[in-house]
Amino acid sequence: MKLVLISGKAKFPLSQMEPGDLFIPVDSIEEEATLTCDAKGTPPPQYRWSLNGTHINLGLDRRRRLSGGNLIISSLDRQQDVGLYQCMAYNTVGAILSRRASLQFAYLDHFKVHTRSAVSVREGQGVVLLCGTPTSSGDLTYAWVFNEYPYFVQQDNRRFVSQQTGNLYIAKVEPSDVGNYTCVVMNSITKGKVHSSPTSLILRTDGVMGEYEPKIEVNFPDNVPAAKGSTVTLECFALGNPVPEITWKRANGVPFPSKVKMKYSKAVLELPSFQQDDTGGYECVAENKMGKNTAAGRLAFYAKPQWIQTMKDTALAIEERLYWECRANGKPKPSYTWLKNGQPLLSEDRVHVEDGVLSVSALTLSDAGMYQCVAENKHGVIYFAAELMVLASPPDFTGNVLRALLKAKAGTTVTLECKPQAYPIASILWKKGNLITLSPDGTLRLANVSKSDAGSYTCFARNRFGMSSTTGRLLVTDPTRIIQGPVDMEIIVGESIVLPCQVTSDPVLDVSFSWAFNGQLIAKGDGHFELVGGRTAGDLMIRNIQLYHAGKYICVVDTDVESLSAVAVLIVKGPPSPPDSVTVEEVTDSTAQLTWSPGRDNGSPITNYLIQTRTPFTVGWQRVNTVPEIIDGNTLTATVVDLNAWVEYEFRVLARNSVGVGEPSPVSVKTRTEDAVPDAAPGDVGGGGGSRSELVITWEPVPEELQNGESFGYIIAFRAFGEVSWTHVATSAPGASRYVYRNDSIAPFSPFHVKVGTYNSKGQGPFSPVVTIYSAEIEPSGMPAGVWARSVSASEIEVNWQALSFTPERVLGYEVVYWEDDTKPETMGKVRVPWNQTSVTVSGLAGNTQYFLTVSAFNTAGTGPFLPAINVTTKKPPPAQPPLNVEWTLIGSQLSLYWEPVVAMESESEVTGYQLSYRRQRHKDVNTLTTANSTAELTLPDDDDDYIIHIQTLSEGGLGPASDPIRIHQLSNARGSRAWSVDISPLSLLLAIAISTLRSTS
């Protein structure tokens, strides 16, 4: 039986911990208070409570009752219910006590109602206003109201409200202090608040108080006890003129730790989480220019007991010895007592109790029960409980019988253990046939067993309560041997192998196989490993071998009597591991020397290394040229050549062996090659065009990776035809691709020789080949005549004009500008045609809309003048309605089509006819047929292809929208004649069925 006490606090305040001190507000005495006590045990425990050490007789007490183990108190009484409560839980096995919990009532009485005398002081004098706290229970806080609520006195270096006395201290009275003062006291538990009568502070008229040295009015005791972990508050305040300054120090000169806080102009020293090294003397010094005064006291450390060593539940046999020890720390040092079943335990013949130690010799059944160690000092008491079970029984082999059949290999040592449960310990003897052997420890050892040792063995156990026995049979077997085990092997990554493990063994033995890899058992479910074979084979298949599969493999063979193993080492060859520590050591404008350290060769020697590079201008990694050209596997340095100057490079190294190329090394640090004179010239030099008196020169900029250095730019050289000397102009923009030379003396469309070179901070590079370009020309001065236009359709206008017969300027072509309205620039459009063309069709226009048009000549300089705009109106748009209700008939190869005529609306062009478009299913060529009526005849070729037909309206506005596609399928009948079907819209299909029905009826 295990009895464990679980205790909790009462209803006020709420808690689920062990009972603690309870403060119940007086105004809550009409409610109930609950002290919790809950224990677990078999049989279920019963409970009783005591108050101040006296048993509570619940049968005679109407206000107190039990609910489970909880004590419920109703109609609380301030006089009768105050005190220490303790719960006892007990059953037939034993009893334990809970910790003691106190119950107190919190209250705050009102101030006595009387008029307080006025306090008269001189200006500059210090004063103390007494609060006169009423009777109370519970923690209090104090504040003072100045004149009227809610104006509270604000504490500073001149005014202080003590939370110890409740008094208000004014170090030096000033005229602004005159008024009425009311002390406000609040109980932190009941939240009740009371006000004193006001005290008037007035100034005397017989002069101002002179300066005087500090007088400490608020002090702390000579000895202040402080609990471990608590927050300690010391107050110090002095009267004086001038207002004194407060400072603090420790008597031993040790500086304050960072956790110390100073409040209210240092009148309060707050020391949180008080520890033993915070003990000692503390001094408060109040000082002004007239002198100083000192107050001192000492902080003393105390701590409630806390367990550092406890007992455990113990089960011992009758006549054995019990030894329990419990230890607790605390200050002062705790004293110890022991309880048995809730009653004090004293030393006697077999029982010894001393300083936290309990020893009982020669245990009897009456010693069983619940024991508690109690540690106590003046600050607290703690309990720890443990159960002692005293066991007495005859030998019992239940759960510990000999194995019915024990198998052992011939030549080994067999150990038979007889371990009955017996209290006290039983004496043991063994019997096999007529052979009897005594065994003090119950163990029978048979060395170098043979077949003759096989047979039944019986163990007999006896103590003073009785006797019992158990029997098992020993079978001696032949040894097991591994006849084929794994051997050391080399293999390539990705291949698969089988490691053999085959045995011969005694047929009566059960054999099992397992494999270990590098000391770890190979678990089922690993996709690379599979155990294959039968009863005498445990071969291991390894699929898709990886580098990490290299190592030591052990086949373990387990039988009922022994364990054997065979070992093989597997070497896995793969591509080399990445090289490491790639370093760039020497750099020029076109070379870089690299060094690296090798990676693992993974079972195959490294044959050579490859070097790759990457720059901000490349896509991915690229192979580079090196010296030596082929880097053998024993070389760990190489020079990279053919690099571009003044470019940031990153390098990496790859190793190759007979298996393949491995993963690349980590990337080297970015390294920039040295700068050099440019060795690339701009490409695609050309130009021309521009404005009057300009020579426009263009070129393809040199890529950044070929600029070879800083301060890169271009040198533009040009000269007119016939001149010898060149004009040179430089630009420092590395991305420049255009230069414009302006000079009023340049004749229009004059030829120039032009070349463009490069330079940077290291010098001048090469020039491009010389090309010929022309200066800017003048826009044409002539105006095309004979401009006229006509509307071709709703979306097209045809424009015509006469070619310019002569103009001194070059004409590249003509430009037609058209628009709907000058106020709608978004409707403007332009069309350009070559110089030898005098007409153009403008398309994409709006139907039934007036357009204005002009025609002018143009060249690279721009467009010339034009005649006043002409206007023309596009035709109305074609009908928006497509042909509907299409019917057809097919006789032989002759297809007849009928449809409903389309009637144009007033805003649309009149229908002048219809256009049929038809094509074969498997061909793209489209044929057209026009008809003035809403019927058409088509002759379809005699083949196996299907046809798709569309019908559109014709009008001045153009072609209207097409009908739904008509799909005609060719079908073969049994007599070789041909029939046709058509795919049309559901509406058309319904109309066709209706028309067919009417015709058949008629």
Automatic annotation (TrEMBL):
CDD domains: FN3
Signal peptide (from-to): none
The protein's name in its UniProt record: Contactin-3-like
Quaternary organization: Interacts with PTPRG.
Domain Fibronectin type-III: 578-676, 681-778, 783-877, 882-974
Keywords: Cell adhesion, Cell membrane, Disulfide bond, Glycoprotein, GPI-anchor, Immunoglobulin domain, Lipoprotein, Membrane, Repeat, Signal
Gene Ontology BP terms: axon guidance; brain development
InterPro entries named among the record's database cross-references: FN3_dom (IPR003961), FN3_sf (IPR036116), Ig-like_dom (IPR007110), Ig-like_dom_sf (IPR036179), Ig-like_fold (IPR013783), Ig_I-set (IPR013098), Ig_sub (IPR003599), Ig_sub2 (IPR003598)
GO cellular component labels: axon; plasma membrane; side of membrane
UniProt source species: Seriola dumerili (Greater amberjack)
Pfam family, one: Ig_3
Molecular function terms, GO-annotated: cell-cell adhesion mediator activity
Region feature (Disordered): 663-692
Domain (Ig-like): residue spans on this chain: 13-104, 109-200, 214-300, 305-389, 395-477, 479-565
SMART domains according to UniProt: FN3 (SM00060), IG (SM00409), IGc2 (SM00408)
Gene3D superfamilies, A to Z: Immunoglobulins (2.60.40.10)
PANTHER family, per database record: CONTACTIN 3B-RELATED, PROTEIN SIDEKICK
Cellular location(s): Cell membrane
Family: Belongs to the immunoglobulin superfamily. Contactin family.
Membrane topology reported for the UniProt record: Lipid-anchor; GPI-anchor
